[in-house]
Amino acid sequence: MNRLAFGAIVAAATCIGASAQAADFGYGRQPAPYTVNQPLNMYSWAGPYLGANVGYAWGDVTNNGASPSGPAGGLQAGYNWQSGPLVFGVEGDIQASGADDTFAAWKFSNPWFGTARGRVGYALNNILLYATGGLAFGSLKGETLGLSESHTSLGWTIGLGAEVALSQNWSAKAEYLYVDLSNSTFLTGLQHGYEFGMLRVGVNYHF
Questions:
Q1: Fewer CB within a 10 Å sphere, N or C end of the chain?
Q2: pLDDT tens digits, residue range 78-110?
Q3: What CA–CA distances, in Å, run from 160 to 4, 66, 81, 163?
Q4: SS3 state of residue 133
Q5: Minimal CA–CA distance to 161: which of 133, 129, 126?
Q6: Is 3 inside any structural domain?
Q7: Mean pLDDT of the chain
């Protein structure tokens, strides 16, 4: 009986020791560090932003030989929504323009214009490539022999761009827009509109 009792005590002690070691192995050690998946570390383009831009516009007046061109600059504001790498947004801008040209007795100029557009893009972390398009509006002014006439026209615009996040709040962008402002009847008796392209660069502050 003494041998049996001694054997039982040894076996019990061995089991208890093994259990304690297993407990130490499972709970005593620090767990392996958790690695966050890269998509969770991507720059977020979502939210509102406000910025400024400067560029150059060049184009043609319909039914006239004038080709107004010149510098332009202004302000833009927008809002983005993001789902994975896909970015959707809306943006509006207002521009002052120095584009003008004279053909025969007529001088045509585009004092200002603006756009209201949708944007859809693909984000490569802090780089956003996008297409944009929507409504355009602006003024075309005609002058001859001391007389002048201005018309504000609606139209459309389409373009492409790229934006790079420089920090959490600041980004820089480059963009090309094609703008078509519809025709209006001027003193010439003809319908004149303004079709132009614009290259511009700008910065945005993201809130």
A1: N
A2: 999 999 999 999 999 999 999 999 998 899 999
A3: 88, 26, 18, 10
A4: strand
A5: 129
A6: no
A7: 86
